[in-house]
Amino acid sequence: MTDFYLMTQYDSHTDQTVSYMQKYLPEFYETKCVFLHYCAGKRAKRATAEAHKVLLKEQTETSVKELTASEKAKLHQEDALERWNLVDEILREAAYYNFPKMHLISHYAEQIPKFGALKQYSTDISECMQKGFKEAYRRSNKVNTMF
User: Fold this and answer.
1) CA gap 63, 41 in Å, rounded
2) Closest Cα to residue 32, out of 81, 86, 105, 107?
3) For residues 96 and 39, is the Cβ–Cβ distance under 8 A?
């Protein structure tokens, strides 16, 4: 994603830079699942913690007295994998990347050949110009702000 973002900031683009952008974005989408834990809300995190706790309790209640040390180790490993898969499944259902900025960037590579570099569409300048108005509003009594 960093490579993609840095490419979007170029002042001018060639067919090669656009093709790089088209290559970088799918790579991000293929690996974005690593961030699912951070995209999940508090409710999903609580649900995963509870599910993990319940499954761990069920797994520890099973008797392993008659198993050998290697069988115990294998069972422990399988149990840990099962817990990880459960947590991952819950997070995948609850977390999402469905917000406008994630969709908007998928159109960058096709917009550059049509309209030119993306820097000209930046809102940084207009945002900077609003700072004075915002500060004045914050200091006001917020009544009759137009006068």
Assistant:
1) 36
2) 105
3) yes
Distance of CA 103 to the CA centre of its chain: 12
Per-residue pLDDT of 16-50, as tens digits, reads 988 888 888 888 888 877 776 677 778 888 888 88
For residues 47 and 92, what is the distance between their CA atoms, to the nearest angstrom?
12
Taking the C-alpha atoms of residue 108 and residue 117, their distance in angstroms, rounded to an integer, is 10
Other Cβ atoms less than 10 A from the Cβ of 13: the count is 20
Q: Is the pTM of this model over 0.70?
A: no
The closest of 76, 79, 58, 56 to 68, measured between CA atoms, is 76
Residue at token pair 């993990």: 52
pLDDT value at residue 129? 73
The count of C-alpha atoms lying within 13 angstroms of the C-alpha of 43, restricted to the half-sphere facing its C-beta, is 3
